[in-house]
Amino acid sequence: MTMPLPTCPVWRKTFESRGEPFRIHKELKEWITTSQSHKTLMKRLIFAAVLLFFTRPVNADGSLLGSPQVRKELGIAHPLAVRIVHNLNEAARLNRGGVMSAEEYRQLQAEQKRTPPEVFENQVMDWLSPTQKRRLEQIELQRGSPFIFEDWRFARRVGLSRQQHRRLQPIFDKAARRSFKEQDRLFKSNLSWYGRVDRKRYAAKYVAYEREFERIGNRRKTTVEAALARSLTPTQKAKWQTLLGKPFRAHLTYDTKSYPMD
Q1: Cβ distance 68 to 45 under 8 Å?
Q2: Which residues pair with 3 in a beta bridge?
Q3: Are 170 and 219 in a shared domain?
Q4: Which residues on neighbouring strands pair with residue 101, listed in sequence order?
Q5: pLDDT tens sequence for the chain (262 residues)
């Protein structure tokens, strides 16, 4: 007996913790779980992982500390970095997905009950100074901008009224749906090879696919940015830039098993 990945805790956490502003994730979950075969399921999971990167929520995430570039930006010394990496790897182990036997799944649940993965994640955040936490949040906001305005919590911090946010929401939703449909179309048109382990053989196809996927995401970003430029007051725009802080443009790599999209 095996346990398909969408029923495992990491996927429940991914899909169910997003909140009302991220309704697209509910649609994504239904699309994945209607897979008729294991092969189709795995291909859809790969696609979903990429899609989730572009539709992730606002809150500063300790898993970003799995990137040495982020730790360097925050001025985290080596001894603390070692502890952070250990905790993030433990959280990732307890949150792991994949196809597993019923016995493995029961053991995983027992471990999670004894020590929830959030214990390790919260401890990492407790080790940071207020200045480091603020910079970490700025980096997270920059990575999510401008889609972070879909979350009322951030929009309120910038000073938007409920009425402003309600006027913007249909634009956000329409752009997200159009982007999702275009990405779904792209995925379906490449089913014959997408998800193959032999990346070298299909290198050119992957490069072309990822570029088109990025173009689709950029079109959505342009639509949202244009709507914000029209709707935000000069004071709100200034507040937005203040919350983002100084630009952080480093290309992130990770030396942990816990990634921001987890």
Answers
A1: no
A2: 100
A3: yes
A4: 2
A5: 333 333 333 333 333 333 333 334 444 555 555 555 555 555 555 555 544 444 444 455 688 999 999 999 999 999 999 999 999 998 888 887 667 788 888 988 898 899 998 899 899 999 999 999 999 999 999 988 899 999 999 999 999 999 999 999 999 999 999 999 999 999 888 888 877 767 778 888 888 988 999 999 999 999 999 999 999 999 999 999 999 999 998 988 888 876 564 3
Tell me how far CA of residue 45 lies from CA of 50, 91, 186, 201, in angstroms.
9, 21, 15, 21
User: Of all helices (H) and strands (E), which one includes residue 106?
Assistant: helix 102-114
Residue 171 sits in the same domain as residue 232: yes
Place of tokens 């909140």: 19
Residue type, 228: L
**Domain around 213:** 145-252
Q: Are residues 12 and 121 in the same domain?
A: yes
Decide: 35 and 117 in contact? Cβ < 8 Å.
Answer: no
Which residue type occupies 104? E
Closest by Cα among 243, 231, 66, 253 to 141: 243
Task: Kindly state the helix (H) or strand (E) to which residue 182 belongs, with its residue range.
Answer: helix 162-188
Residue 113 lies in a domain: yes
110 and 3 together in one domain: yes
